[in-house]
Amino acid sequence: MTVLKNLIDDAVLWRRHFHSTPELGYQELQTSDRVAQLLESFGIEVVRGLGGTGVVGTLRNGEGPSIGIRADMDALPIQELGNAAHKSTHKGCMHACGHDGHTTILLATARHLSETRRFSGTVHFIFQPAEENLAGAQAMIDDGLFERFPMEAIYGLHNWPGVTAGHVVINPGPMMASLDTFEITLTGKGCHAAMPEKGADPIVAAAELVLGLQTITSRRLSPLDSAVVSVTQFNAGEAINVIPETAVLRGTVRCLQTPVRAKVQQLIEEFVAQLPQAFGVTGALDYTVGYPVTENDPDAAAVMRRAAIAAVGEDKVQWGCNPSMASEDFAFMLQARRGAYVWLGVDGETPSAALHNPYYDFNDAVIEPGVAVWTALVEQSLPLQ
């Protein structure tokens, strides 16, 4: 498949504009306006404001089924440290995860399909807000995404450092882990630090609990189960000579299987209820269930694989990989509709900086293969009648 050079040249300019003007989740006002304006200029129907700042563009071309393709638009609260001419102009905010690239690839695909129209049916181009920790996908679903825009399947893409630029990676099952968070409050009895016997020390109990939680994955789950339990915050005390009344732990849980996810939550509840008692301390758990496992439908994944092979060649498509323990709220969409999620490699001669790194910058060289993949998917899923 050939993508016209002038389209890619335009797309690079869009991408760099998005990169220089990043916006956080549910604040993507300029971004969504620009997306809507471009879609309208391509002759595509546009609905704004879905899920807050989300945009859906619809392209119809005769009778046939319908599919959806999603890109995320939000940036991260990170100060950019790179020196690109299109460096972020918004202090403390940057596109460190490549959502500027995802948005651009989908826009370029929309323009290309509106010009070529080698398909029969309907394509919904879904530009989602607030992927980073704020569940923008669920917000769009709650706002009627699948009722207002019926579709048989939905597909998503994420750029992936560590994979060669233009290569595609896909699993017929889990791609990304679930994401849950927890806050544990340990309440003891405050006292003078020189007289610990007069109190009940929540810091010691919290320290033991941090270590105890690590045994969930090493001793309470099968080695064949995939889970991560990480305590990321430990807050207690205000003075060096006082044993405080409380200590607070916060952290995250990642799993690749839904039953394992439920088991880990149960075990954390048991540890919090029982372990602190040995220290005369009580524990209270606030457990927040977040993003589900990002799990591809096997049939939709096979469809995606065939499209990727048609677009970039079989030698550049990896079928089966180790899933990532990072998380993605596209999982909510995959719970609501069958579909698939793929990784698009971005490593050129110089490897890409990691995602969420202050030096990250999307590789514009993969805009063209990204457009080719989405175009092949549409043309194969919605063949001309």
Describe the structure.
The protein is of the alpha/beta class. The protein folds into 2 domains: 260 residues, Zn peptidases (Aminopeptidase, 3-Layer(aba) Sandwich), CATH 3.40.630; 113 residues, Alpha-Beta Plaits (2-Layer Sandwich). The protein is 34% helix and 27% strand. The protein has an 8-stranded mixed sheet, sandwiched between helices. A 4-stranded antiparallel sheet has the order 10-12-8-13, with helices on one face. A two-stranded antiparallel sheet has the order 7-14. The longest helix is centred in the middle third of the chain and has 19 residues. The radius of gyration is 24 Å and the shape is elongated. The model has no long low-confidence stretch (mean pLDDT 97).
**Can you tell me the CATH class of the largest domain?**
Alpha Beta
Morphology:
elongated
What percent of residues adopt helix (DSSP H or I)?
25-40%
Report how far the terminal alpha carbons are from each other. Answer: 20 Å
Integer count of domains:
2
Query: Which fold does the CATH topology of the largest domain refer to?
Result: Aminopeptidase
- Report the major sheet: 8 strands, mixed
Class inferred from helices and paired strands: alpha/beta
Topology:
Layout: H1 5-20, H2 29-41, E1 45-50, E2 54-61, E3 66-72, H3 99-116, E4 121-128, H4 136-142, H5 145-148, E5 153-164, E6 168-170, E7 174-176, E8 179-187, E9 191-192, H6 202-220, E10 227-236, E11 242-243, E12 246-255, H7 258-274, E13 282-291, E14 294-295, H8 298-312, E15 317-319, H9 330-336, E16 339-347, H10 367-381
Parallel strand pairs: 3-4, 3-5, 5-16, 6-15
Antiparallel strand pairs: 1-2, 2-4, 6-16, 7-14, 8-12, 8-13, 9-11, 10-12
Helix pairs in contact: 1-3, 3-10, 6-7, 8-10
